[in-house]
Sequence to fold (422 residues):
Amino acid sequence: MKWSKLALAALITSGAVATAQADTVKMECGSGATVRSFCDYVKARFEAETPHKLEFIDMPASSDEKLSMLQQIFATRASNVIDVFAMDVIWPGVIDRHLLDLTDSVKDLEPAFFPSAWQNNVVNGRIKGVPSFIDAGLMFYRSDLLAKYDEKPPETWAELARMAERIQNAEREAGHRTLHGLVFHGKAYEGLTCVALELIASHGGGKFVDADGTITVNNPRAAEALDAAASWIEKIAPRGVLGYQEEEARAVFQNGDSVFMRNWPYAYLLSQDDKSPVKGKVGIMPVPRGGEAGQHAATLGGWQWAVNVNTKVPEASIELVRILAEPETQKRNFMLMGVPPARTDVYQDPEVQAKGPYLNDLKVVFDAAVPRPSTPTRSQYPRVSNAIWNATHDVLSGRSDGARAVAELDTRLARIKGKDWR
Ligand code: GLC
Fold:
C-alpha cells in the first residue's frame, strides 16, 4: 500500500479524543483473516479487562515501508494516529527517541522472555519494547520430491543449486512445467538485506559491518556469494523473485511450484493448512553453508511491541502491551500465524507442542542467528540496509557483478558512515 501525504493528514485529523477514564488506544493490525482474528482476540480481552477501547490501524506490510510511515508520523508529532505498534528487531537504535520508556511498567516481565530478544529492546539501559515473536531465516524443502530423487537435504548452497536444478528439470520434463528449483524474496527491500546477509555470512564473507563499526563487505567471499546467487536466476529461480516479498515466495512454494524456499518460520504452519497442496510434504532445514569451509548463518529477525512517545494514552497503551506480552496472547499468535513466541514458557504448552513440534529445533537456529548490522550503524541503519539491498539487487538482476558490487557498496557505506556511525 502506498501512503500519500493526504491519507496521513486524514488519519491525523480523524483521531479520537481520549478521556481520562476510558481511553481509545490505536494499535497496528495488518489485513488478512488470520491476523484480524488475532487482533480481535486482543481487542476482546483489552476491552473486557480494562475500561478502554481498542481501534486498529493498517500499516504497510514491509518493514522498510512501515518504518518510513512511522517516521512520517513521528515527524508530525501527532499523538492520535497510532499508540501501539510492532517494531522490527532492527529498529530500537533507529527510532529510540520516539519510543515511550517502558522500563518501570514492564521490567518484571523480563525473566519470561528469551534473553537476547529482551536485551535487543534495551537502549541505554531503558526498555523500549516487549518482544512479540522471534524470527530467523530457514530453508524449506519439498520432502516428497527430495525422497523421490533419493536426495538428502543439502548442506551447502552448491549442493542445493545442483539438487534444485536436477529435480526442477526432471519434473518439468515429466509435465510439471511450472516447477522452479528455488524461490526467495529478492525484491529491493529489507527482506533482501536479510537474504544477502545469509548468503555472505554463510560464505565466511562477514556481516557488511562488524560489531565495532568497521566496514567489512569488500572481500572476495562476499563477492563470490553474490555471484553464486546471481547464477540461480532463470536457472533454478524464476526472474520474478527479483520482485518478490515473503508472501509472493510463499504463494509459489505453497502452490507446489518450488522445490526449495528461503523464508521465515511462519511459512511452515501455513504450508500445513488442510487446504495447502503441500501439506505433509514440507521439511525445514538451516540455511545452507557457503562451502565446506562456510557456516550456517540464519538472519535474526523478529518483532516487538512498542509505544509511541507522543501518545496521549500512555497508561492504557501499557496495559495493552502487558496483554500482548501474556503467554496466552503469544500462544494465539503462534497457533494462528505460526510465528515463534518470544516467551520461553509458551514452548511448553501442550497445544503449542502438538502443533509445532519443530519449534524445539528452531531454538538452536535462534541461538546461532546472525544479526543485521543495526547496532553498530545506529540511526544510519536504514541507509546502510538500503545500500545493501540495492547492491544485491544489482548483482541478482545482472546489472553488476559480485566484485564490483562489494567494492561500490564499501564506498557507499563509508560515505554514509562519515567520521563515525551516529
Ligand atoms: C521478517 C523479520 C524482520 C525482517 C523482515 C524483512 O518480518 O522478522 O526482522 O526485517 O522479515 O522482510
In short: Residues 198 and 237 are 17 Å apart (CA to CA). The two ends are 31 Å apart (CA to CA). The chain has 19 helices and eleven strands.
